Amino acid sequence: MGGLAMWQQRVEEFVLDQVGSPATQVLEVGCGKGELAHALARAGHSVTAIDPRAPEGPIFRRVGIEELTDPGPFDYVVASLSLHHIEDLGGPWTR
Predict the structure, then answer these.
(1) Which residue has the higher pLDDT, 86 or 67?
(2) Which of 11, 18, 56, 84 has its CA 20 to 30 A from that of 42?
(3) Domain spans, the chain
(4) Is this structure's pTM higher than 0.85?
(5) For residue 25, what are the β-bridge partners?
(6) Which residues have CB under 8 Å from 65's CB, separation 6+?
(7) 8-to-68, 71, 92 alpha-carbon distances in Å
(8) Are strands 25-29 and 60-61 parallel, antiparallel or unpaired?
(9) What's the CA gap between 90 and 95, in Å, rounded?
């Protein structure tokens, strides 16, 4: 297993451990290709995954956090390697 695949596996394990086993509502900000979003969905969680370049699929939205119009409610928000792309970090969280 390569370095990137190992890192992705560790992120998935960590997030799944934090979210726990009962089904929850999860927002993933900056989902990229959707690996983590798919792992969360496979574990039984209701997932909304956003990214301007998100893949096609029912759990994905091609928007940035600034354009998200349906903010939940969410039990968990996961933002792995994405917050540095947001120009006004306070804006999306103060609505």
Answers:
(1) 67
(2) 84
(3) 3-93
(4) no
(5) 46
(6) 29, 50, 86, 92
(7) 25, 26, 26
(8) unpaired
(9) 9
For residue 21 the two structure tokens come to: 């086993």
Helix, strand, coil percent values for the chain (each to nearest 5): 35, 15, 45
Closest to 50 in 3D by CA, of 77, 10, 23, 73: 77
pLDDT tens, position by position, 3-28 = 878 877 888 888 889 888 888 999 99
Residue with tokens 């989902």: 31
* DSSP letter string, 27-67: EEES-TTSHHHHHHHHTT-EEEEE-TTPPSSTTEE---GGG
Does the 3-93 domain belong in CATH 3.40.50.150? yes
Question: Can you name the residues that pair with 48 across neighbouring β-strands?
Answer: 27
Distance CA 91, CA 32 (A): 22
Task: Specify whether the backbone of 17 is left (phi greater than 0), alpha (psi in -120 to 50) or beta.
Answer: alpha
The CA distance from 56 to 69, in Å, is: 18
